[in-house]
Amino acid sequence: MVISIDTNFARLLVRLADTELILAQRLCEMCSRGPFLEEDIALSNLALDLLGRAEELYKLLAETEGKELAADDYVYRRNEREFFCYKLVEQPNTDFAWVIARQYLHDVYAKSVFTRLLQSDNSKLAGLSEKVLKEIRYSLERSKDWMLRLGIGTEESNHRLQFAIDRLFRFVPELFAFDTVDLQYIADTEGLIEEWKMEVSDTLRTANIQEPELKSTHLRDSREGFHTEYLGHLLSEMQFLPRAYPDATW
Amino acid sequence: MVSSSVTEHIWELLKQVPDPEIPTINLVELGVVRNVEVVEGNIKVIITPTYTGCPAKQLFVDLIREQLAASGYHDVEIETQLYPVWTTDWLSEETKTKLLQTGISPPVADNKPVVCPHCGSKQTKVISRFGATPCQALYTCNSCLEPFSYFKCH
Asked: Cβ of B132: how many Cβ atoms within 10 Å?
């Protein structure tokens, strides 16, 4: 079964929802693997916020598309090529510095995107944006704190964060490769890119991390359903139960 | 009963539904119950979640249904609204005092000091921005050295 996404507004929603869902799933994988107990709890709580955000976006998507599909159908019944999350968020939890760098780069972007969606013509998306912005700002404070703590902590933590940033930066240009769908709903994308660069450059400088150059890559875009090898593995675990036992309920 | 007294009765019943995670305060005090509408005998309760990912979201609905059914209101519509966005500004001073007495430091705005619920000291520091529930953070007191939960300002 292929679940098609039929309107531009739905395409916008599915990108937002998939991005929050896949990052939530990545953070769920950290449960019991955090560097210490408090941080373990924090990562799971953050995963809950992201999952709750994704759920509301999928509900709005389901309502917009009107195909009698539920949020769960979008989560569990699509294949890799039918997901539209940015490649940044599907990258694995290589180590704690990766978890933090990925979160920080996501949070800065999400804050700018949802701030613009406050002006959405769709009142539900505008209201939801106001709700989730509170959570995103809080998450950003935390992920930025950790960027500084790792960056100016020890030689080892600095080295690991530098490695994570160097590797993850290759997935940043995709965030800014706005297509006609994005441009239709997200105002002032030029300003968004500027905001992101200023905020991230400032944090990296303070954290004593060298800022890598943003180079365009030959990777095909997630907006067309292209991903890195990691998404398929993530989905096979996340979707296992409903795929093996269709229509199972709690 | 006329609808206004039904409405009042429903509000009274809802004030007896404790928050599942902080049972000393109820769902009305928490600001989760936004409105009760009784139109031609149809009862509708409008609620809002504290956080989009709050695991107690479904439990709120179940507890409300159970409470109202126990008093004979079996056919109740419960609608979840996200907007206006839930805020800790809706907690009354009385509710905040109750939280403090429970051992949870109530939300404070504008970077004012977080008070230790054990000794009242304002010399406290954050340990982790997330705690036992999505709405709490972990703190420790520099004076009495005890750890405590802080109800995040949201």
From this structure: 14
